[in-house]
């Protein structure tokens, strides 16, 4: 198996201190808004209107909890010179207290678009929001220029059109803005990975007959929150006959002797996510288990070897098998199994790497990209499977892997 460099990016701790240089959050904020404004110029936009939660976090440095994720109840407008945030009720006042150097009564205000249709358009909230947005754009002198928008409810979109605004795609400019990570972002991503390293050690010790998939999910949630996780988006916990095909959801199935089991831990630390699979066997491993793991590892290593600045994503995807070679009808049917995706404030950022899209539409791999690669190999016993995922940052010298829990060989938990 090839040897790849592992993380030397700092993972100093979860608090800021006076005696060591750690994350500079003001530098992080300025880097992100600067990247957004570069896209305004590149795409000839007067402003960007952002409803998608990850985009709001990136551009505004505000968050009010996962409960508000993509409900359309908070939005931000970014122009060349200004940022204005509309937030859920009292959150607007809270931002003025929490970030007084950024927000005041003029640029952090309450807004409401009807709670995803629970308040109908006839109440006038959609029209009011559109009118306030248009008024802000007129005051900024950009109302006649294209307005990039990432996502919105249909009623809000129509209300914006009724204000005479020219709406264009704003999601691609935001994806391009978020594509290259700063040193502060890489440090946060590395710290998020370090937290998962520890959770996998706990999982490995906990795996034994009678433990349920859901028990592992509970364990992972508890440990992550103890270590300072902001929120846990998902824990995949899959064992035994549920491994193939991948169901992408955990159950209350009890783990039994000889089960192969794989897990994915998706959480956020200061907004920055992980997507990090590992595979184990409980008690004893069969040859089918070992062969599946070896195959998944080989596909992973061949893909990592292609992660170099100047290479393109099709060179990675070509190292993975066609869907038909591992039991699926076509690439759409197998999407997400042999897979790569950017990781940052969002779980799925650029670049997206798969045989579904990358062979015909490759993009260049660039220094500063941070992404995950995932492989999946069904076992010959017809129901087991191995799943591996590594996260890495692209450096001038190639990939630097930041997911450090051992994954070179199939690990047997509580071996008999």
For the record, what CATH class of the largest domain applies? Alpha Beta
Low-confidence stretches: none
Our estimate of the beta-strand percent is 15-25%
- Under CATH, the topology of the largest domain is which? Creatine Amidinohydrolase
Write the layout of secondary structure elements.
Blueprint: H1 25-43, E1 47-50, H2 53-60, E2 75-78, E3 83-88, H3 91-98, E4 108-111, H4 125-139, E5 147-149, H5 154-162, E6 167-169, H6 171-177, H7 183-206, H8 213-226, E7 231-239, E8 260-269, E9 272-273, E10 276-282, H9 287-304, H10 313-317, E11 339-342, E12 349-353, E13 370-378, E14 385-395, E15 398-401, E16 411-413
Parallel strand pairs: 1-5, 3-4, 5-6, 10-16
Antiparallel strand pairs: 1-2, 2-3, 7-8, 8-9, 8-10, 11-12, 11-13, 13-14, 14-15
Account of the protein in words:
This protein is an alpha+beta fold. It folds into two domains: 46-169, 3-Layer(aba) Sandwich (Creatine Amidinohydrolase, Chain A, domain 1); 183-413, Creatine Amidinohydrolase (Alpha-Beta Complex). 31% of the residues lie in helices and 21% in strands. It contains ten helices and 16 strands. A six-stranded mixed sheet has the order 4-3-2-1-5-6, sandwiched between helices. Strands 7, 8, 9, 10 and 16 form a five-stranded mixed sheet that branches. It has a five-stranded antiparallel sheet with strand order 12-11-13-14-15. Helix 4 (125-139) packs across helix 5. The chain is globular.
């Amino acid at each position: 198996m090839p040897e790849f460099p592992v993380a030397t990016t700092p993972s100093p701790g979860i608090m800021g201190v006076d005696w060591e240089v750690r994350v500079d959050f003001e530098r992080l904020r300025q880097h992100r808004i600067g990247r957004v404004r570069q896209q305004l110029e590149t795409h000839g936009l007067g402003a960007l209107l952002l409803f998608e939660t990850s985009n709001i976090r990136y551009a505004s440095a505000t968050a009010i909890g996962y409960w508000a994720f993509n409900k359309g109840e908070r939005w931000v407008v970014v122009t060349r010179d200004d940022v204005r945030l509309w937030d859920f009720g009292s959150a607007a006042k809270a931002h003025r207290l929490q970030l007084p150097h950024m927000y005041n009564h003029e640029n952090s205000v309450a807004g409401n678009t009807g709670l995803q249709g629970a308040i109908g358009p006839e109440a006038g909230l959609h029209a009011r929001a559109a009118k306030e947005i248009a008024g802000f754009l007129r005051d900024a002198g950009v109302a006649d220029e294209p307005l990039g928008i990432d996502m919105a409810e249909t009623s809000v979109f129509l209300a914006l059109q009724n204000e005479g605004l020219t709406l264009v795609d704003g999601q691609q400019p935001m994806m391009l803005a978020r594509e290259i990570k700063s040193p502060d972002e890489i440090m946060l991503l590395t710290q998020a990975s370090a937290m998962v390293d520890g959770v996998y050690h706990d999982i490995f010790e906990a795996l034994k007959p009678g433990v349920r998939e859901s028990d592992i999910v509970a364990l992972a949630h508890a440990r992550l929150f103890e270590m300072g996780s902001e929120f846990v988006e998902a824990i995949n916990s899959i064992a035994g006959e549920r491994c193939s095909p991948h169901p992408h959801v955990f159950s209350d199935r009890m783990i039994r002797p000889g089960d192969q089991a794989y897990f994915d831990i998706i959480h956020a630390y200061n907004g920055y996510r992980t997507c990090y699979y590992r595979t184990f066997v409980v008690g004893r491993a069969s040859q089918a288990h070992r062969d599946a793991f070896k195959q998944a590892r080989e596909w992973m290593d061949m893909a990592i070897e292609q992660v170099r600045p100047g290479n393109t994503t099709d060179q990675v995807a070509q190292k993975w098998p066609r869907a038909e070679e591992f039991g699926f009808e076509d690439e759409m049917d197998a999407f997400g199994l042999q897979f790569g995706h950017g990781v940052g404030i969002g779980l799925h950022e650029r670049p997206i790497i798969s045989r579904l899209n990358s062979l015909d539409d490759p993009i260049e791999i660039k220094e500063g990209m941070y992404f995950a690669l995932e492989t999946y190999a069904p076992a010959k016993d017809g129901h087991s499977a191995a799943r591996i995922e590594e996260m890495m940052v692209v450096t001038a010298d190639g990939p630097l892997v930041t997911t450090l829990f051992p994954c070179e060989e199939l690990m047997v938990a509580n071996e008999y």
